[in-house]
Every structure is written in structure tokens, then in C-alpha cells.
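Input C-alpha cells:
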């Protein structure tokens, strides 16, 4: 087992790398370096656990176990075989190997994955006389392989399931907008957890759940398990102390100034079910209302919304009519508010007829999006107006 501090890497939604670097530094990480797709950093076992428990933006926390130069699949095999895997986890644990590559000269990523799996099993057979089972659906241990032009890096996934799976969705199902992307958007909006917060097109309630947890100080991983609990160096006493410390920071609050609405009654019911599954139903105000008819719930605040975007031509035609009306509604009833629209429709700012004060490129999976900021001030902001 190598000495701490560990070298770690956390992937995140593209565009949120600087935000994640700041979050990890605040948790105690050192040498944070934002790179395309995530953040490299260093930290001890406690930091690794805290990043899993408390990061709202990371997708995973990967612990580097080995790095080596390579030119062929055989080099990758030798690199993986050189690791004493028994020091990291027991042979009775099932494994899964995933490979990603950027500018790798190797032709088949699938073949690299197979070679690493073989190397791990062969090393266990050499050291223990037995090999671990492979389970691609629900493995005990996930091994991540990253290839660049010259180097192969082997990681152990300390998270297990991706961190946007907060362990609270229940029957409400999986959110169409990943929770860590929603949390990053809220962070980019500069919401402080105290001022009024509104999602007027709340869908399944992802923004509302993240906002309520932020306001209450609830750690996003408080209700789930992690991959590090199945590793050989798992420190149960340390983990218990960190969980108890996080629970002690939860702020007792009454009704929060967090508001959600949607034109669809089905969406409101889904959001209510998701909030109940998260134990947050009593803290958030929900109602069914068309955003074009909605009255601001406070004199000022932060609005965050993920409006629909058009794929088919008839969708685009409807949105071309919708966005100018949305601009009129914001201008008429939300003066004093900071409004943020997250959309894959890159023409939305032109259609809405308001001048955005900021455009932040973000990706929802492979989909290029923008987070538009509109500071609504009475009597201004109209394109071509005073």
C-alpha cells in the first residue's frame, strides 16, 4: 500500500472543471489542477472520503495506483500486471475494467480493456492462486484505465456508482438532468443558499433537491454507499467520524425560500415524489403554474431553469414563439431577479429578446449547451431598447 498523500482525479461535466477545482480545494485537496474533463488533485484517505461524501460536482473520485509509458497492448498488460492488486482489494471481490483514451495510438479500446482484465486476474493467480470474478453490472471494485499518447494510468474507483446518484431518487426515477450538473449550474449562478430560489420549469425537481440540500447543509452522499468501503485500506473508524461530522453540520431550518413550479401537473407530482424520497418535501414550495403566467415569489432572488429545446422542426417552431413570450414575462414580473437559463438551444438568447450578461459553455453529456445569465432590471435589457 503506497504512502499518502494519494494522487486522485475527479471527472465532472465539461465546463465545470474550475468550479470543481474550487470545491475540492475548499474540502482540503492540494495541488488542484483543472484539466479538460476533470480535476487532478492530491490528498490523504480522509480527503478521498470527504470528496466522495461532500462533492456536489464530481462524477467520481479515482485513486491513481500506477502510471507507465506504453507503445503496445503488451506494454499495457505489463503495467497492469506489475501492480500488487491484493494490496488494494481481496481476490473474492468482483471487478470491472473501463478504458478511456485520448489520442492513443492503439486501435481497439475493447482489446485494451480485455488485456488489463487478464493482467489483474493473472497477477492475483500468481499471488493468491485464485482470480477475481468479473461483473460488468454490479462489480465490487471498478478499475479505470486512461490512455493518452504515451502513458497508461491505472485508477481504482473509490466512488462505485457515479456520484450524481445521490441515493435518494426512489420510485421517482433517474433525473434527465444529472444532479452534479444541476449543482454546478446553481454554483455558477452564485446562489448563497439564503436568497429566494425558483425553478419555474421544475420537471422532476433536480434543481430543487440540490438547492434544498445546499441550503440545509446536507452532504450529497449522506444516503449512499461508496466503492472505497470495499477496498483493503478502508478505515471504518475514520469514515464514521467524517459521516458524523457531516451530519452535525446540517442546519435545522423551517420552510426554505425555495420555490418550484411547472405547467405540467405530472411534472409537479414527479417533483413532489422526488422531494419526498429525499426527505425534503416539507422545505420546498411547489405549485402547478405556466411560467408565462407565474408571479415572482419574492421581490428579488435567483431563477434557474432548464427550458425545453427543439429537436424536430415543429418543436423549433413552438420554441420560436415561446421564447419571446418568456422574455416578456421575465421583464414584466421578475425585475430584481438574476435569471439563468440552461439550454442546448444556442439561439435562445436571440429568441428571448433580452441581452444576456453572461454566457457559460457547458455540456450535458455530449450535448453542447449554454448557461445564459439575465439580470432583469425594470426598463432595461431589451435589445435595441434603452
Amino acid at each position: 500500500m503506497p504512502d499518502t498523500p494519494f494522487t486522485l482525479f475527479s471527472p465532472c461535466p465539461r465546463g465545470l472543471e474550475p468550479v470543481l477545482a474550487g470545491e475540492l480545494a475548499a474540502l482540503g485537496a492540494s495541488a488542484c489542477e483543472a484539466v479538460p474533463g476533470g480535476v487532478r488533485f492530491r490528498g490523504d484517505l480522509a480527503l478521498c472520503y470527504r470528496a466522495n461524501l461532500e462533492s456536489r460536482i464530481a462524477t467520481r473520485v479515482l485513486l491513481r495506483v500506477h502510471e507507465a509509458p506504453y507503445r503496445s497492448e503488451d506494454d499495457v498488460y505489463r503495467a497492469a500486471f506489475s501492480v500488487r492488486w491484493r494490496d488494494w482489494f481481496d481476490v473474492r471481490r468482483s471487478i470491472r475494467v473501463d478504458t478511456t483514451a485520448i489520442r492513443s495510438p492503439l486501435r481497439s479500446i475493447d482489446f485494451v480493456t480485455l488485456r488489463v482484465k487478464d493482467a489483474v486476474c493473472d497477477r492475483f493467480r500468481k499471488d493468491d492462486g485464485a482470480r477475481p470474478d468479473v461483473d460488468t453490472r454490479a462489480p465490487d471494485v471498478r478499475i479505470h484505465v486512461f490512455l493518452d499518447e504515451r502513458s497508461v494510468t491505472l485508477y481504482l474507483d473509490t466512488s462505485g456508482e457515479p456520484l450524481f446518484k445521490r441515493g435518494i431518487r426512489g420510485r421517482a426515477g433517474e433525473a434527465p438532468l444529472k444532479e452534479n450538473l444541476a449543482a454546478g449550474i446553481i454554483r455558477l449562478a452564485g446562489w448563497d443558499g439564503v436568497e429566494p430560489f425558483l425553478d419555474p420549469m421544475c420537471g422532476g425537481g433536480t434543481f430543487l433537491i440540490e438547492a434544498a440540500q445546499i441550503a440545509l447543509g446536507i452532504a450529497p452522499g449522506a444516503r449512499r454507499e461508496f466503492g472505497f468501503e470495499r477496498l483493503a485500506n478502508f478505515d471504518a473508524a475514520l469514515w464514521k467520524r467524517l459521516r458524523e461530522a457531516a451530519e452535525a453540520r446540517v442546519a435545522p431550518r423551517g420552510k426554505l425560500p425555495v420555490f418550484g413550479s411547472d405547467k405540467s401537473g405530472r411534472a409537479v407530482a414527479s417533483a413532489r415524489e422526488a422531494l419526498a424520497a429525499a426527505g425534503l418535501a416539507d422545505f420546498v414550495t411547489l405549485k402547478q403554474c405556466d411560467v408565462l403566467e407565474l408571479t415572482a415569489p419574492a421581490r428579488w432572488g435567483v431563477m434557474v431553469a432548464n427550458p425545453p429545446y427543439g429537436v424536430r422542426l415543429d418543436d423549433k417552431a413552438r420554441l420560436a414563439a415561446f421564447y419571446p413570450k418568456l422574455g416578456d414575462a421575465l421583464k414584466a414580473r421578475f425585475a430584481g431577479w438574476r435569471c439563468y437559463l440552461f439550454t442546448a438551444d444556442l439561439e435562445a438568447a436571440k429568441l428571448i429578446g433580452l441581452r444576456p450578461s453572461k454566457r457559460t459553455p457547458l455540456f450535458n453529456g455530449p450535448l453542447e449547451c449554454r448557461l445564459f445569465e439575465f439580470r432583469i432590471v425594470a426598463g432595461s435589457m431589451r435589445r435595441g431598447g434603452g
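The two ends are 66 Å apart (CA to CA). Confidence is low (pLDDT under 50) at residues 380-386.
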